[in-house]
Sequence to fold (162 residues):
Amino acid sequence: RYVFTWHCPNGPGLSCPFLIDTSGAYFRRDGFAGNYLGGMSPPEDEEPDPSDLSVDHNYFQEQIWPRLARRVPAFESLRVGGSWAGYYDYNTFDQNGVLGPHPRLENLFSAAGFSGHGLQHAPAAGRALAELVIKGRYETLDLRRLGWDRLVDGEPLEEHGV
Fold:
């Protein structure tokens, strides 16, 4: 995946959340002073060669920037600052997190495999795991569907928004 940073002094303010456009382009603020970072996952048949971690800057210019500018008109005048490429790590079974006690190993709990959106899920996953360890059950959110059973039973949790 490629991630790009840019500067746009007239862009959305501090109240702007992490935004994923319906086209797949995403961005968030990167600190203060009009700095942002974002990108867009390519279609599966256009994935870059995983052995080459160089950034394709044309991908930003041709695919991402037009979508961002359509969503946020101020981004028509953005100035790209930097970029990097890296691997998108994910749970290959169903691209969803695995949360809870291991089915065979006593006293082993996991919160893993959140496929790049772990930071977004971390507060809820952490609280749920703490409830499991301390109380022996979920209290605030019932996250049993993220448990190991679906992997053991071979039944992926379908989520079309991933």
Remarks:
- The first strand starts at residue 2 and ends at 7.
- The CA atoms of residues 19 and 89 lie 21 Å apart.
- The chain has a mean pLDDT of 91.
